[in-house]
Every structure is written in C-alpha cells, then in structure tokens.
Amino acid sequence: MARKNIDFSLMITTFILVVIGIIMVFSSSAYYSLNKFQDSFYFLKKDLMWALIGTGAMFFAMNFDYKKLRKYSFPAFLISIILLILVLTPLGISINGARRWLGVGSITFMPGEISKLCAILFVANSLSNNIKNIKSFFKGIFPYLLIIGLYFSLIIFQPNLSTAGTISLIIMAMLFVAGMRWIHMIFLGSCGVGLLIVMIILAPYRMKRVVGFLDPFADPKGTGYQVIQSLLALGSGGIFGVGLGKSIQNKLYIPEPQNDFIFATIGEELGFIGCITVILLFLFLIWRGIRIAINAPDIFGCLVATGITSMIAIQVMINIAVATSSMPVTGVPLPFISFGGNALVIFMAAIGILLNISRYASIDDK
Questions:
Q1: How high is the pLDDT of residue 70?
Q2: Maximum average pLDDT range among 70-74, 157-161, 232-236
Q3: How far apart are the first and last CA of the chain?
Q4: Helix/strand/coil for 109
Q5: Tally of structural domains, the chain
Q6: Looking at the predicted structure, is the pLDDT value of residue 98 above 80?
Q7: Cα 59 from Cα 70, distance rounded (Å)
Q8: What confidence tens digit (pLDDT) does each residue in 55-70 have?
Q9: 238-248: string of b/e by CB count within 10 Å (b at 16+)?
C-alpha cells in the first residue's frame, strides 16, 4: 500500500501539549528547584533536553515502517521483563521508599514506562497471529492473562500498583478491540476489581490513601494533604487563573508539583479555561488515535494504535481524577506535560508509531 501524508493534526496537537508541558514544568518547579538545587531552571533544562530527545524519537518512529516492528516485538518483550527483574535486584534504585528505577549516577529511567510500549507491541503481534482464537477463553484469552500476571507481579513488588494496573488495562483494551466476548470482559473486570480491593486491604499505606480520598480533611496534614493542596490550587484559579508563575500552592505546598499534580498548577495559574483547553487537546489526540486504529490497514496496526491510544487515555483520566480528588492518590504522570524524561520520550515515540500507521490508514480528513 502506498504511503500517504501523516496525520498532521495529531502531530501538531502533540507538540502543543509538549510546549504546554515545558512551560508548566518551569512555572511549577522554579521555586521548588531554587530551594532544592539553587537553580530555578534545573527542571526546565532537563525537560527541554528530554523533549528534544523525544522529538528525535518521534520523527524516527514516524518514518520507520510500523510493520517491521513485528519482528522486534518479542525481543522488546524480553528486554522489558529483564529490566523489570533488574529493578528488584541491588541494581534497582530506591527513591522515596519505592524501587522503580535503573541507571547510573544522575541518569535514571523507569523500566515500568518502557514496559508499556513493549507490552503493546508484543501483545499486538501475538493477537494478530492468533485472532481466530479470541472468542475462546483458554486458547484466546488465558495466554494474555499470563502476560498481564507476569508484568503485574514484577511491577507490584516495586511497589507500583498504578503502573501495573495501567499495563493490565491497556492489554484488556486491546483484547476487547480484538473481539473478546462481553461475558469474558465482565468476568475479568469483576476479578480485577476484586484483586484491587485485596491489594488495597493488604497494604496499609494504600488503605490510608483510600481513607484520605473519602475524607481528606479528616487528616489534612497527613493522608489528605496532597489532595487538599491540589483542590486549593484548582479552586483559587477561578475562570482565568492567577497568571503564569503566580501560583501559591506550588511554593513548597504541593510536593514536587512538576510531576503528578501538575494539573493543579495548570488550574491555579491558567484557571478553568486552561484546564478545559488541556482536556480538549487530549480528547482531540485520543479521537485521532481512535480514527487511526479504526482505519488501520491491518490487525497489527489497529491493535498497536489501540494500545497507544489506550495508554494515553488511561493515564490522562487517572492523573486528572487524582488532581480533582475523583479517585485516591496514585503516581501517574500527565502524558507530555508532567516532568519525567523517559516517560516523555516513550510517549513521543509512541505518537511517532501512531503517525506512521496514519500514513497507511484510510483517513481522508488529515
């Protein structure tokens, strides 16, 4: 099939989100980084560097025939599993009580972020080769439950329930699009909810987060602290916000405001208008991803596009839900916007793959 032009609207939307992210990372981190590193531009410089690397990764993936990714999907799967195992060894780096990083010196990365894209490619290739069995639970669904179980087990010991859950949801979304039966989806969804409840009960700190979510003001200096500061930021922003760089809550009130709670800074500085703009940009990006998946020329392309779009959609929903106190606090970055080097590179590379699929998709209104 002849190549067409890429989906420029998707690419432009991605760049707009990245630029917003760079601006908001600087605005939210300047005071914090000045106090911690004596350099107001500490996070800005790092974010700019990773954005440039991510742009290179996106353009490379955009021009690399996505069909060739099939032969690299199994090696990518093996590498992701090996990296997750290494995290649990003495080579893993512990930060704030969690062992989620690998690296040397100041250069670190999270194998959990890499695993999301690796899992998408591997499952997409495997499903496209075995699509005829998708209606069968044991032949079509059970093998992928083992894959979910493997990723979940390795990541939950870090511990990182949010990333383990995200990968599980991504694979389930791919199974659903591949044609799994509704009865299987309902059964597995019920099992997933039951497992989540058990994981919360077995971990006291997770139970505290749930209690803090139900009534954050019961413990305003403990479990409810982050949520309260986030709500204060969102509430004080009003319709138009207090202005860039004029946030009060990111002045050492919200811990590391450039990461998981960056949406709160957007709400405070840019107001309701800023929040809605960011949400609409994400909705447009997700819509373009869905269209690419629907119009992909083959099952592999459809499932890869589904996985990538699901990954972005799931993380956007969780991050904004946490910032608005719509669910318990959990560490999920806002795609393209939150500070985080390897996450930004992975997301931009994933968009590059989506753009490459769009070259072959039958979409007229690009």
A1: 96
A2: 70-74
A3: 18
A4: strand
A5: 1
A6: no
A7: 19
A8: 999 999 999 999 999 9
A9: eeebbeeeebe
pTM above 0.90, yes or no: yes
Tell me, what's the pLDDT at 278? 97
Which residues span the domain enclosing 178?
8-360
- For the chain, the average pLDDT equals 91
Q: Which element (helix H / strand E) includes 351?
A: helix 341-360
In a domain, 240, yes or no: yes
- Inter-residue contact 99 to 92 (CB < 8 Å): yes
Structure tokens at 107: 């250069």
3 lies in a domain?
A: no
Contact yes or no for 77/119 (Cβ under 8 A) = yes
For the stretch 95-102, contacts whose Cβ atoms lie closer than 8 Å and that sit 24 or more positions apart, written own/partner, are 98/158, 98/159, 98/160, 99/158, 100/158, 100/160, 100/163
Where does the pLDDT of residue 99 fall: very low under 50, low under 70, confident under 90, or very high at 90 and above? confident
Which residue is it, tokens 């511990």? 159
Residue 78, domain member (yes or no): yes
| In the predicted structure, residue 1 carries a pLDDT above the cut 60 | no
- The number of beta carbons lying within 10 Å of the beta carbon of residue 228 is 19
**Inter-residue long-range contacts of 287-291, CB under 8 Å, 24+ positions, other chains counted:** 288/7, 288/9, 288/10, 288/13, 288/354, 289/10, 289/354, 291/361, 291/363
Q: Is the pLDDT of residue 324 over 50?
A: yes
For residue 322, what pLDDT is reported? 92
CA-based nearest residue to 290, from 5, 3, 10: 10
Give the span between the Cα atoms of 157 and 208, in whole angstroms. Answer: 19
Sorted by sequence, the CB contacts under 8 Å of residue 202 that are 6+ apart come out as: none
pLDDT at 310: 97
- Dihedral class, residue 241 (left if φ above 0, else alpha if ψ from -120 to 50, else beta): left
The type of residue at 306 is T
Encoded tokens for 44: 């800005």
**Confidence at 364, pLDDT banded by 50, 70, 90:** low
Decide: 352 and 345 in contact? Cβ < 8 Å. Answer: no
Kindly state whether residue 1 falls inside one of the protein's structural domains.
Answer: no
The length of the chain, given as a count of residues? 366
Q: Are 109 and 101 in contact (CB under 8 A)?
A: yes
* DSSP state, residue 137: I
